[in-house]
Write a structure and sequence with these properties.
Layout: H1 4-43, H2 49-97
């Protein structure tokens, strides 16, 4: 079959893009939960100053970790998207030549 190698590369790139998309949405959910944790810790009432500081500090640390995970997910998605576009271009070019 003509363009079989390019088609296989395109299918692989499509799979990787789907995986990166799923990871991106997972990181988005983590960011949302983390942000709500910071808001909840900020609004918490009736805590001693020490406990409130610990809770708020934990929420901020989780927010920083979630932000780093989101940055990684953005980079992974961008790379997967670029590789998919390259594979699609190669496949289309192959079809044009055959």
């Amino acid at each position: 079959m003509a363009c079989e190698i390019e088609n296989d590369a395109l299918e692989n790139a499509k799979y990787n893009l789907t995986e990166a998309n799923d990871a991106w949405w997972e990181a988005t959910g983590d960011m949302t939960v983390s942000t709500l944790g910071v808001i909840g810790a900020t609004l918490a009432e009736g805590m001693s100053l020490g406990l409130a500081t610990i809770v708020f500090g934990s929420a901020v640390i989780n927010e920083i970790r979630s932000a780093a995970k989101m940055d990684d997910a953005n980079e992974d998605y961008d790379l997967a998207e670029d590789l998919y576009n390259d594979a699609l271009t190669a496949y289309c070019n192959c079809l044009d030549l055959n």
